[in-house]
Structures are given as structure tokens and as C-alpha cells.
């Protein structure tokens, strides 16, 4: 027991004396969650548009005001002729152009029909669609406003409620994903690197020629990282809640327990990586490439799993991150309890046991 | 009680490279046994087999009577091992390293302090310095302390003096002599031939084979040829000329002199002088000398090449 204590203390010395390790451990998660949280978003805010208002009457001016009032659009420039539209797009600043033909108000009231042309830069189809949708709905509202009391004879009134995320904040989608990704990366990468370092520097050679049983060597190296990764999880949670306004509707205790479970899964994955690598570089590359890429692509973090081809959907089941993202969303957004997420929890437990068992099988008690 | 180290017919191959073959020797209690050989001769591989880190392809070995394959766990409790590369924690201080290694061997620095005291007092002034910032000699002394702190029955030191200044090397060997007197069997390897004289017995290893196992004095006695120390002002031209001479058996540079043996011994010294006469070497001198251990090794290595 004393051996174990001294071993773990040695590991803490390593961590706290190496500024780079500290930075990766505590700096990287904060920077990443802020970057991801603010940068990766599919909401449109302040999109630059150009306006060619050939009518310049009261009604067309009101329409342009309506467009810019919501904070979705910002007028970059006012154009004078059709010919300049193309040039404006070429410059690359504007995402959409609005063309209002002459005598807009007059046609609306007298001909009962007015036209507005929307041109969008479909180089980025998703953004283009979103912008057109926003603009159409604003124009639609304006039309109703102008119609005033005149009721249409028959209408179907759709009432939409966006459950669990009424404001449709994409942050609610990304924060659990980013939390998962960072916890996985930091925990798995740091453990695999720290064990590979003992091998690379030759200290593993001395540790092996000592009465320490190999499981104790691994445990002594990993326990400090369990503590630190858990602190990390708390930090990320706090950032999610206070910076991005994530709610925690479920049980806090359950949430923390699940975080511990996922930290254990990631650490055991790190141990597994370290049993097959001898160099810190290799360990880092293996963790980055082997975990980062599949996790971002297949965990449902960015691309919805439901829209993937079937083989990829099966593959996504192998990602520990997928299960943890579901757990996080269920607890934080839906306030779910263990009776809802028992399956995901069980999957993570199973994965952890599997990784640990494989690591024990792979661990070399000799050098080769 | 069996000898501390018994090696029988060990073979080891890495891919197609025969790293070790036909290795057999015994190290007795309280013996300082030297393994002398150039880099790549297979010294470290042998150490790793004996410290249970590698498995031999063929042959048996035992340490304190324990088999290196079957009883590896027990061996790991009783040996001290200092790998060829400095393998302590560079970011831990001297005292932290020592304390750490004492603890993982289930003992304390205080319990065996008398064993390491002589060495430790030399590095004690630096005990708060990170191990990575010590000089080469200090590092090796610390590594020896760490390997000794659990009072091992057998000590394996793989090239402990490589990269260490001459004064520290001498001190290091004096420590080994004292440890030997305390009954610890020591297997030490070195690429420096002059260190062979300080061992009780030495084994010369080359290309994975042992060439000769004997006390160093016996190895010198085996050297039967007359030997000359030759020098002149232009050493490089001299060595070229001597090697071109038909009766030259060997000619190597040793410090300021060339050590020369002839195929026919003293018989043809006159011919050599006649051969060198027209070459007009300035400050030429040639004197018969006693062979040193290095001459013997050069001779042995040459005959096995």
C-alpha cells in the first residue's frame, strides 16, 4: 500500500513539474470548449446581405427594416443596378442579395401581387437554405402585417413547440459533444503518453526489475489521472453551465457518477493504447488519430447518427463517446434518471471492463 | 548453495542477427566479474536475459539459484540492476529518486544506509537537484545508489562508466571493489579495456561470443609474443610504414606509442630496422615492453575476427 502511495505521489510530481502536461491537462479543455462552443454553430447571426431596392417607397423601406431588425441580417451595401449583384457576390462578403422591383407598394395593393427576389450564395448550401428560410419567414410575417385584419377564409394553424431546447440553441447540441470529446482525449492521451514515457526513457526497465507487480505500476500511474480528469470534468461542466447556459435538469449526483464512469472508460482506453506503443509520439498520434477522428465523425457529435448509412450506424455503437453524449443530453436537458439511461451506462461499464481485460492481457512483463 | 550467476549455453537471435551464442560462465559469491567488449557485442542483451527482461532462445541461466524464466518474479526481488542508459526520473530530485526506489523495493533508505553511505555522501550536497541536471559521473553514482538501496544479492551494472570522466570512473571502480568485499556478486560490463584489470575475472565478448574467461593477470600471462613500443615524430606515416612491412603481425596505436608484434618475434627485428632506415623517421625509438591487458584483448579479438 505504501508502495502504491509513493508511486502515485511520484506521478503527481511528474505532472506538476511539467508545464506542458499541466497546460494540456487544464488549458486545452478550457480553450477547446470555448472555441467549439462559440465557433462551431449553425445558427445565423449578422449575415451580410446586399439590397437592391428599385422601388424606394415606404413599403419597400419597411421591408428592408424588418429584414435587418431581427439581428439575422446586416446590410453590407446598397446596390444600384442588377449588374453589380454578381460583383458583390464575387467579392465574397455578402451571403444573400435582396432585389425589390420598382413600384413595390403599388403592385402589392393594386395588383394584389408584389415580387421580391432572393439570391443566395449556394456555395455553402446549408447556410444558403437557412438564410432563404429566415428571409422568407420574415417576408411572410410582413405580408400578414400588411394584410392586417383581412382574414384568409381557411387556415391551418400549426403550433410548434421545440421540446427541451425551446430556443433552438445549437450550444445544447455541441456542449455535451465537446465535453465528451475533451474528456476522452485528455484522459486517454495523457495516460497513454505517461506510460509510453516510462518505456521511452528506460525507467520501465527498472520498474520491471523490481518487486512491483505490473498491475500496480499501471494503477499507480493512472490513479492520479482519474483525480485530475474528474476535476477536468467538473471544470467543463461548470463552463457549460455558466458560460453557455446549459441546464442540469437531472440529478447532479448521477451526472457526476456518469462522468467518473466515462473518465474510467477513457483511461482504460489510454492504458490499452499504451500497451501497444513504445514511444510518446506514437502514443499521442494513436490517441489523436485513433480517437479524435472517429469520435467527432461517428459519435453523433456533429453528424446525426440517424442519417448515416447503416454500416456506419453499427460502427458508431463502438464509440464510447456516442453513449456518453446520450447520457449527458438525457440527464442535463431532459432530466432523465438512471431508469432511462441504464442501457448506455451498462454499455460504458462493459467497454471499460473489456479495455482493462485487454490491457492486462497485452501488458508485457518483459521487454519484448 | 549455488553460485550467484550461472549461465549455460545461452543463445539469442534478433531476426537474422545472432546476438548471443554459446554463452556460458559462472560468477561466484563476492566476485567482480567483468564483461568486456565493443559496442554491439551483445553485452546489454545478456544483461537483459539475466535480469529477466528478455527470454533466451536456447540455454539456461540462474541468478541466486533461481531460474531466469520460471522464477522471474523472485529474481526481481533480489537483484540490483543499472541499465546501460541512465534510467532514473530526471524531473525528480536526487533524494526523491532514492526514496522512490527504496520504497518500491519495500525498504527504506535508512534501513540500508550503511551500504550506500560511501557513495551517497558524494552526491548528498546535490540532493535537492533534479537528477537530469547532474553531471555524468554524479548520475551514475545516484543510479548505483538506487540499484543498491534494497541490498541486492547480485548486482548487474551495464556499462556504468560510459560517458563518465576518468576521475569519477576511478572512484566508481573503487566503490565496486568495496561492495565486492561485502559479499555482493557483481556482473559489470564496460567497453574500456583498462577497467578489466580491476575485475576478479573478465570475459571478453565479441559478436555475441565469449572469447576468453580468466583473471586479468592470467590473460596477460597468455600473451607470449615479444612486444615493442615504437614512436617517431610523424606517427601517421610510421603506422602506415609499419603495417606495410611484410613481417608485421599487428600494429595499433596506444596513447603516444604504437604497439607492434612481429610474425617471427625477435628474429627479424634487424630486417625491420633495415626496412625503416631509408624512410628516415625523425625521433625514432623502439623499445621492448611488457604486454598490458589491452594488447591481449586486441590480440584475442584479432584472432577471432
TrEMBL record, chain A:
<dbReference type="InterPro" id="IPR013525">
    <property type="entry name" value="ABC2_TM"/>
</dbReference>
<dbReference type="GO" id="GO:0043190">
    <property type="term" value="C:ATP-binding cassette (ABC) transporter complex"/>
</dbReference>
<comment type="similarity">
    <text>Belongs to the ABC-2 integral membrane protein family.</text>
</comment>
<feature type="transmembrane region" description="Helical">
    <location>
        <begin position="171"/>
        <end position="196"/>
    </location>
</feature>
<feature type="transmembrane region" description="Helical">
    <location>
        <begin position="340"/>
        <end position="360"/>
    </location>
</feature>
<feature type="transmembrane region" description="Helical">
    <location>
        <begin position="21"/>
        <end position="40"/>
    </location>
</feature>
<feature type="domain" description="ABC transmembrane type-2">
    <location>
        <begin position="136"/>
        <end position="366"/>
    </location>
</feature>
<feature type="transmembrane region" description="Helical">
    <location>
        <begin position="222"/>
        <end position="246"/>
    </location>
</feature>
<keyword id="KW-0812">Transmembrane</keyword>
<keyword id="KW-1003">Cell membrane</keyword>
<keyword id="KW-0813">Transport</keyword>
<dbReference type="Pfam" id="PF12698">
    <property type="entry name" value="ABC2_membrane_3"/>
</dbReference>
<dbReference type="GO" id="GO:0140359">
    <property type="term" value="F:ABC-type transporter activity"/>
</dbReference>
<keyword id="KW-1133">Transmembrane helix</keyword>
<keyword id="KW-0472">Membrane</keyword>
<dbReference type="InterPro" id="IPR047817">
    <property type="entry name" value="ABC2_TM_bact-type"/>
</dbReference>
<dbReference type="InterPro" id="IPR051449">
    <property type="entry name" value="ABC-2_transporter_component"/>
</dbReference>
<feature type="transmembrane region" description="Helical">
    <location>
        <begin position="252"/>
        <end position="273"/>
    </location>
</feature>
<protein>
    <recommendedName>
        <fullName>Transport permease protein</fullName>
    </recommendedName>
</protein>
<feature type="transmembrane region" description="Helical">
    <location>
        <begin position="285"/>
        <end position="305"/>
    </location>
</feature>
<dbReference type="InterPro" id="IPR000412">
    <property type="entry name" value="ABC_2_transport"/>
</dbReference>
TrEMBL record, chain B:
<dbReference type="InterPro" id="IPR003439">
    <property type="entry name" value="ABC_transporter-like_ATP-bd"/>
</dbReference>
<keyword id="KW-0536">Nodulation</keyword>
<dbReference type="InterPro" id="IPR050763">
    <property type="entry name" value="ABC_transporter_ATP-binding"/>
</dbReference>
<dbReference type="Pfam" id="PF00005">
    <property type="entry name" value="ABC_tran"/>
</dbReference>
<feature type="domain" description="ABC transporter">
    <location>
        <begin position="5"/>
        <end position="232"/>
    </location>
</feature>
<dbReference type="InterPro" id="IPR027417">
    <property type="entry name" value="P-loop_NTPase"/>
</dbReference>
<keyword id="KW-0813">Transport</keyword>
<dbReference type="GO" id="GO:0016887">
    <property type="term" value="F:ATP hydrolysis activity"/>
</dbReference>
<dbReference type="GO" id="GO:0005524">
    <property type="term" value="F:ATP binding"/>
</dbReference>
<dbReference type="InterPro" id="IPR003593">
    <property type="entry name" value="AAA+_ATPase"/>
</dbReference>
<comment type="similarity">
    <text>Belongs to the ABC transporter superfamily.</text>
</comment>
<dbReference type="InterPro" id="IPR017871">
    <property type="entry name" value="ABC_transporter-like_CS"/>
</dbReference>
<keyword id="KW-0547">Nucleotide-binding</keyword>
<protein>
    <submittedName>
        <fullName>ABC-type multidrug transport system ATPase subunit</fullName>
    </submittedName>
</protein>
<keyword id="KW-0067">ATP-binding</keyword>
Amino acid at each position: 500500500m505504501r508502495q502504491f502511495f509513493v508511486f502515485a505521489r511520484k506521478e503527481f510530481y511528474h505532472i506538476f513539474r511539467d508545464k506542458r502536461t499541466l497546460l494540456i491537462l487544464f488549458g486545452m479543455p478550457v480553450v477547446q470548449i470555448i472555441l467549439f462552443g462559440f465557433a462551431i454553430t449553425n445558427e445565423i447571426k449578422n449575415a451580410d446581405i446586399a439590397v437592391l431596392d428599385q422601388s424606394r417607397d415606404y413599403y419597400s423601406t419597411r421591408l428592408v427594416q424588418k429584414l435587418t431588425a431581427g439581428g439575422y441580417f446586416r446590410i453590407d451595401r446598397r446596390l444600384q443596378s442588377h449588374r453589380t449583384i454578381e460583383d458583390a457576390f464575387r467579392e465574397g462578403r455578402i451571403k444573400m442579395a435582396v432585389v425589390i422591383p420598382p413600384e413595390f407598394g403599388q403592385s402589392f395593393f393594386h395588383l394584389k401581387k408584389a415580387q421580391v427576389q432572393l439570391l443566395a450564395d449556394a456555395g455553402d448550401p446549408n447556410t444558403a437554405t437557412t438564410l432563404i428560410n429566415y428571409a422568407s419567414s420574415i417576408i411572410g410575417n410582413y405580408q400578414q402585417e400588411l394584410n392586417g385584419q383581412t382574414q384568409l377564409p381557411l387556415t391551418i394553424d400549426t403550433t410548434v413547440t421545440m421540446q427541451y431546447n425551446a430556443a433552438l440553441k445549437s450550444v445544447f447540441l455541441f456542449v455535451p459533444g465537446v465535453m465528451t470529446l475533451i474528456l476522452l482525449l485528455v484522459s486517454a492521451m495523457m495516460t497513454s503518453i505517461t506510460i509510453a514515457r516510462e518505456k521511452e526513457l528506460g525507467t520501465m526497465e527498472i520498474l520491471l526489475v523490481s518487486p512491483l507487480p505490473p498491475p500496480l505500476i499501471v494503477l499507480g500511474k493512472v490513479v492520479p489521472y482519474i483525480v485530475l480528469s474528474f476535476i477536468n470534468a467538473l471544470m467543463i461542466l461548470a463552463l457549460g453551465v455558466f458560460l453557455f447556459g446549459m441546464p442540469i435538469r437531472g440529478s447532479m449526483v448521477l451526472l457526476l457518477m456518469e462522468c467518473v464512469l466515462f473518465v474510467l472508460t477513457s483511461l482504460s482506453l489510454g492504458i490499452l493504447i499504451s500497451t501497444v506503443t513504445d514511444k510518446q509520439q506514437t502514443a499521442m498520434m494513436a490517441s489523436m488519430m485513433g480517437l479524435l477522428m472517429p469520435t467527432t465523425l461517428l459519435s453523433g457529435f456533429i453528424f446525426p447518427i440517424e442519417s448515416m448509412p447503416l454500416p456506419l450506424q453499427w460502427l458508431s455503437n463502438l464509440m464510447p463517446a456516442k453513449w456518453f453524449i446520450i447520457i449527458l443530453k438525457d440527464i442535463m436537458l431532459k432530466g432523465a434518471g438512471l431508469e432511462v439511461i441504464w442501457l448506455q451506462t451498462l454499455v460504458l461499464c462493459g467497454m471499460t471492463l473489456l479495455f482493462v481485460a485487454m490491457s492486462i492481457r497485452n501488458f508485457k512483463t518483459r521487454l519484448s | 548453495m549455488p553460485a550467484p550467476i550461472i549461465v549455460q549455453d545461452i543463445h539469442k537471435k534478433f531476426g537474422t542477427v545472432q546476438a548471443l551464442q554459446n554463452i556460458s560462465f559462472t560468477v561466484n559469491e563476492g566476485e567482480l566479474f567483468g564483461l568486456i567488449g565493443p559496442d554491439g557485442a551483445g553485452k546489454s542483451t545478456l544483461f537483459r536475459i539475466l535480469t529477466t527482461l528478455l527470454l533466451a532462445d536456447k540455454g539456461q541461466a540462474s541468478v541466486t539459484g533461481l531460474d531466469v524464466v520460471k522464477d522471474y518474479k523472485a529474481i526481481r526481488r533480489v537483484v540490483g540492476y543499472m541499465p546501460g542508459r541512465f534510467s532514473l526520473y530526471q524531473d525528480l530530485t536526487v533524494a526523491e529518486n532514492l526514496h522512490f526506489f527504496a520504497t518500491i523495493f519495500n525498504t527504506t533508505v535508512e534501513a540500508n544506509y550503511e551500504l550506500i553511505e560511501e557513495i551517497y555522501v558524494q552526491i548528498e550536497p546535490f540532493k535537492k537537484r533534479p537528477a537530469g541536471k547532474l553531471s555524468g559521473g554524479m548520475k551514475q553514482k545516484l543510479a548505483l545508489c538506487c540499484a543498491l538501496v534494497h541490498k541486492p544479492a547480485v548486482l548487474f551494472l551495464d556499462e556504468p562508466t560510459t560517458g563518465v570522466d576518468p576521475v569519477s570512473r576511478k572512484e566508481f571502480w573503487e566503490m565496486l571493489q568495496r561492495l565486492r568485499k561485502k559479499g555482493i556478486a557483481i556482473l559489470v560490463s564496460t567497453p574500456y579495456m583498462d577497467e578489466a584489470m580491476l575485475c576478479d575475472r573478465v570475459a571478453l565478448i565479441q559478436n555475441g561470443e565469449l572469447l576468453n574467461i580468466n583473471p586479468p593477470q592470467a590473460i596477460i600471462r597468455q600473451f607470449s609474443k615479444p612486444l615493442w613500443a615504437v614512436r617517431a615524430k610523424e606517427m601517421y606515416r610510421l603506422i602506415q610504414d609499419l603495417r606495410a612491412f611484410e613481417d608485421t603481425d599487428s600494429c595499433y596505436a596506444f596513447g603516444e606509442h604504437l604497439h607492434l608484434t612481429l610474425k617471427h618475434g625477435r628474429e627479424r627485428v634487424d630486417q625491420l630496422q633495415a626496412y625503416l632506415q631509408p624512410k628516415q623517421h625523425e625521433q625514432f625509438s623502439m623499445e621492448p615492453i611488457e604486454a598490458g591487458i589491452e594488447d591481449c584483448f586486441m590480440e584475442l579479438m584479432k584472432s577471432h575476427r
